[in-house]
Amino acid sequence: MSSVLQKAARPMWTIRGLHKSAVEVLKHPAPEDTVTASFGKFISEVKPQHLSSVVLSRSKRMVLDSIGVGLLGSTTEVFQLALHHCQLVYANHDVSSVYGRRGTKLSPTLAAFVNGVATHSMDFDDTWHPATHPSGAVLPAVLALSEMMPANSKPSGLDFLLAFNVGVEIQGRLMRFSNEAHNIPKRFHPPSVVGTMGSAAACACLLLLSPSQCSHALAIAASLSGAPMANAATQSKPIHIGNASRLGMEAAILASQGLEASQLVLDAVEGVAGFSAFYKDYAPQHLESPSDNDGHAFLLEEQDMAFKRFPAHLGMHWVADAAASVHKHLVGLGPGTVSPSQIQDILLRVPLSKYIDRPFPESDHQARHSFQFNACSALLDGEVTVESFTPTAMTRPEILQLLGRVRVEHPHDNPANFNQMYGEVQVALVGGDILKGRCDSFYGHWRKPLTQESLRKKFRNNAGAVLASDRVERLIEIVDQLDTNRDCSPLLSQLQ
Fold first, then answer.
1. What is the pTM of this model?
2. What is the three-class DSSP state of 177?
3. pLDDT-based confidence at 338, cuts 50/70/90?
């Protein structure tokens, strides 16, 4: 594959009708009555005109948010470790850009990897239902692959958005085949599975692979998927997203070169597990391909995205908002600030999920996955922010005192499901009064989506950590107009 990457300066693959030269596209018909074949056919045949105005608008919001989160993530230690690893271990192929590093380029697959790591390094990326982080696994791969294309063969903005949306769509469709997937995960991190499949689908779409090759790309990706939940709340969790982006791209490239895999990987075959290896209750259905005259109802049209206001696991946003409402009451009762001396006991009523139940987190990654820490931070400060997870903020005596007073209950009516859960915070004051706060849908949830103004404010704060303000504003403008651009070069040129 390195020889292919070294020749990236000359045309390699067809991009929506443009010339193909370097890689011979091999066509092998797949049985048309299988679930796997239906997915391959959809990826190969869906067109930009099938993207509705709602899908275009929502996906551009996802692209903007994901880029901003990735740029901020390029300042983290885990990103630096991943980048140093790639520069130390692998040969240099100066092809695709790295978030937040002017002049630094890697091979396309490694750029997808480190940018995926950056996107999830602070757990600040978007979240969907069923539970996964769809953008971080797909966008870095689509960006890196687009940058790999020759200057006269860059995908248009619409083709770029189509590939991105195909990657998101495939993730959503696969997760809806399982009831287990609707709940907060216990066994494996979903982006490491459906994210890899989504990246493969997006790249296969961008490479204009045949239906059979698209099916093979998915099957190859399935063999490159999976990461255990034991690594949540550690520096290894962001690697799940980086690997999903990178390995999905590799699966599509391998399929483009003729590598074959199971033609039944998405089907339910008794005695031989395909994608059902990941979900015990997997019940797949065919995915219909749109005709030239008929549209396709993308899942993003019916199910909006959740965008986080602060960098932590999505479940933390419920308890943070509930605790912030208690903070307001406490401030009104006292001298304008909250002191641990006012508080005798803190009770959290949250879903049962072991990996986000961390009474005394010892790192920023653990704190981002701690009901207790995020509730206490919001109770003390009135909000949770990027700065809440700095060593100085985490080791404040006031935070440590409050953490020692937290109890947790798991009501039966509070399932570990991002579409049904709630967060409740009950504070017993020293004088005997009880204050309660409850959040059923936080601001940023798909039921209460961020306004465009709020989303852009988040982007400006994140991207502004590494880019000058004029480039931040230019990125906002480029993403907003992406569907009207003849090619995606303006976007690619602004990312460093």
1. 0.92
2. coil
3. very high
